[in-house]
Amino acid sequence: MGYEFIQVSADQSVGILTLHRPAVLNALNLKMVDEIVEELERMDRDDSIRAIVLTGNDKAFAAGADIDEMADESVIPMLLKDQFAVWDRIAKVSKPIIAAVSGFVLGGGCELMMNCDIIIASETTKIGQPEVKLGVMPGAGGTQRLTKAVGKVKAMEMLLSGEPITADEALRYGLINKVVPVELYLHEAVKLAKQIAAQPPVAVRLIKKSVLKAIDIPLDEGLDYERNCFYLLFASEDKAEGMRAFIEKRKPDFTGR
C-alpha cells in the first residue's frame, strides 16, 4: 500500500497491521498514526476482511509518542494541530481489532492498545503511561480508558508514578485478555481473530457496538440498544442460516448478509 511506517498482510479473512519503526521501538510519530488509521479504515471497508490484528514486534508494540516531534512545540501550534483528533476515528472502526502486544507498550502505545477490542500479550510485556515523567500527561485517552479498565486507584498509581506494570498484573486488573509466551502472542491473536472472522459479520459488528455502548450509557439505555440490535438481526440472511444450520446439525455458512 506504499506505507512508510506500517506493514500490511492478511491470513485468510484476518487483516494484520504491523507497526514498523524498529529503530525507535515503534515510537508513534504523526505520519505513523495517520497510516495506522488509514489502513484500519481501509480494512474496515474490505468485505474480505472480517477481523483485524494490530501488532508490533517482540521488543515493542510501541514505546510511546515520538518526543522529537513535540519537544520544541508550544501551546498554540499544538492546539491548532489537534494531533489527537485522528485517534477518534479508531473507535469508529466497526470490525473487531485484536492487539497482539509484546515488550514495551508505553504512552501512546498503551493508548493505541486500549483502543483495541481484545488484547493478547506476551509474558515480556510492560504496560504504562510514563508521560508525567516528561512534564505532561496522556492526551489520546490514557486517563480515561485506563481508569475505565483498571479502576480509579490503580489508574492513579500508574499515571502519577509513570511506572509500568507487567503483563501478569495487567491481566489481574482486566486490562488485557491473555498472557502467553513471547513466541506465541501473535499466533494466539491471529487464531482468535480467525474464530471471530468465522462468525456472522453483521452480528459481530452489532455486538461490538453494543459492548462499547455499555461503557458509556446507563443500563436501561444499554438494554434498549441491545434489544433493538437483537431484533434487527432477524432481518439478516445469516440469522436464518445460523438457525437452520443449528437445527440441521451442520456448520453454518455465513455470508455477511
Question: How would you explain this protein's 3D organization?
Answer:
This protein has 257 residues and is of the alpha/beta class. It has 2 domains: 6-197, 2-enoyl-CoA Hydratase, Chain A, domain 1 (Alpha-Beta Complex), CATH 3.90.226; 201-247, Orthogonal Bundle (Lyase 2-enoyl-coa Hydratase, Chain  A, domain 2), CATH 1.10.12.10. It is 42% helix and 16% strand. The strands form 2 sheets. The protein has a 6-stranded mixed β-sheet with strand order 1-2-3-5-7-10, with helices on both faces. Helix 4 crosses helix 5 and helix 8 packs antiparallel against helix 9 (219-232). The longest helix is centred in the N-terminal third of the chain and has 16 residues, at 30-45. The two termini are 28 Å apart. The model has no long low-confidence stretch (mean pLDDT 94). It holds the Pfam family ECH_1. InterPro entries: ClpP/crotonase-like_dom_sf, Enoyl-CoA_hyd/isom_CS, Enoyl-CoA_hydra/iso, Enoyl-CoA_hydra_C.
